[in-house]
Amino acid sequence: MSGGLKISANIKSANNIKVTNNTNSDKNHPKIMVMIPTYNEKENIVHLMQSINALNVPNLHILVVDDNSPDGTWKLVKEYSKTHPHTHLLHRTKDKGRGLAGIAGFKFALSEGADIIVEMDADFSHHPKYIPKLLETIKTCDVVLGSRFVKGGKDLDRGFVRQTITYLARNLIRIILGISVYDCTSGFRCFRRKVIESIGLDDFISKGPEIVQEVLYNSYFKGFKIKEVPIVFMDRRQGESTLGIQAMIDGFIMVWKLRLRNI
After folding, report:
1. pTM of the model
2. CB under 8 Å to 260, separation ≥6 — which residues?
3. 72 Cβ partners below 8 Å, 6+ apart?
4. Residue 223: in which H helix or E strand, if any?
5. Is 7 left (phi over 0), alpha (psi -120 to 50) or beta?
6. What's the domain count of the chain?
């Protein structure tokens, strides 16, 4: 496969990802793609996919973008897709990283005709029970953030140090980038198709988790309407987090890069 990319489930061609304008939607329901980037999430991924499908949202597809997880996460997704045809797998073996995985996932969703794209983590810190609220809210805006810091939202089960870092980071990002949202580090988000088509994915510079800031920044300054809905964020129960100190430093550096690029 070119570029170290393997595409499974319901895909006729796996040579590359082509971005098209064909929405290919259900006549009565928009096509929804829930994109889940993964790395070593075998303890969570099947339960998560089952929980999403249990919502019974019409015309909902699941896309797992896996960076060749050593624990075999991608194998579980591939097996699950055999009995759940709305499940798709991007198995990436080269050019790894959360940012590059996100870009690949967005492009795949567009090429498959998604009208609405939901992005979430695989560890249940972003609980699928909030997906219907995101989808309801997107009817009146362009981007919806699952927010810990609006009324009704909470950030639970994390130590004082991590909560303090999150508090400082979100306020610094708001000040430096001039973004008037409360949870600008939220990775639980919902986008209209036109947003992802317009934010210049081919020009992104993020390779890691800092893509969260780049996507939000570009969406905000393209003038898209952003709303926040409250969620309760609960730290992962199973598996290990890949978000360490270096990722936080990279995120802070990215904020300054984005600001300087647009002065």
Report:
1. 0.84
2. none
3. 42
4. none
5. beta
6. 1
DSSP reduced 3-state for 35: strand
Q: Hey, is 156 helix, strand or coil? A: strand
Strand, coil or helix: 224:
coil
CA distance 207 to 253: 12
Cβ neighbours, 10 Å, residue 40: 18
Closest CA to 65 of 125, 20, 121, 113: 121
Candidates 105, 11, 116; CA nearest to 58 is: 116
pLDDT in tens, the chain (263 residues): 444 665 554 433 333 332 223 334 466 899 999 999 999 999 999 999 999 999 999 999 999 999 999 999 999 999 999 999 999 999 999 888 889 999 999 999 999 999 999 999 999 999 999 999 999 999 999 999 999 999 999 988 666 776 777 777 778 878 887 888 999 889 999 999 999 999 999 999 888 888 888 999 899 989 999 999 999 998 756 555 555 566 667 666 777 777 777 65
Q: What range defines the domain where residue 9 resides?
A: 2-261
Q: Which of 227, 32, 30, 31 has its CA nearest to residue 137?
A: 227
CATH code at position 52: 3.90.550.10
Cβ within 8 Å of residue 195, ≥6 positions away: 142, 143, 219, 222, 224
Q: Is 230 helix (H, G, I), strand (E, B) or coil?
A: strand
Name, in order, each residue with C-beta under 8 angstroms of 116's C-beta and a sequence gap of 6 or more. 30, 31, 32, 33, 135, 138, 190, 191, 192, 193
